[in-house]
User: Fold this.
Amino acid sequence: MNIEFNRIYNMNCLEGMKYIPDNSIDLLLTDPPYMISQKNKRINRKNMRTEAYRREMDINLDFGEWDHFESEQEYEEFTKKWMTLTYNKLKNGGWFMVFFDKNKICLLEKIAKELGITSKTIFVWAKTNPTPHFRRMNFVSATEFIWMGVKGNTHMKNYQRQTEMYNYMLYPNKSTYGETGHPTEKPIEILKRIIKPTTVENDVVLDPFMGSGSTAIASIQLNRRFIGFEINKEYYNMAMQRVSKAISQTKLLYEVIEK
Assistant:
């Protein structure tokens, strides 16, 4: 099987990544399963006491079968498998950027250390419109974390201005930017923010858990190449529709510039 650039494959990444040549990827950027789903659980917002919180749609706390694991050991083994595969595919100096559950960052650190990945920082996405904490028993969860490490210990390829290199970004949640029905769709602007300094044009970005295609869109807009895998057929179709649209828009833009 030949793996081509600028394509998303509807298959298990643990199988598909075997066909990518070792030391050929410039950046690993992905949002893997977190093992945080609460099976069949929803929050009903139709009858909230506070009018501002009421919504017709429930909040679904079960993201799907892809986030279900029988045990923590099974999840750890799964995480180690995909991290080992991506490590082998990355070039020396290639970066790992992984959205991850705050309670499991230590697992990433452990596996990274075993593989020889140098831990660099945790990038914080601070949400400007987080979901309210309805039960009022904790602080509002307004952040997500992107763990960052590098294979080897080299300088960034495309370091930006200091103000563009802060390890946080303020940006709203999906209710503002969302384009698809994917439950964990990530904002393209945040992905672009972290792709840009670690790659240059025509570098290759790998996303083994492509979801609705946001990594591919960000790569297209920055003139980077990408390879993606998505096992879920529904999400794969979402991603393909978005990618086709993004490529058409990019071609049209270049045609306008050339004229």
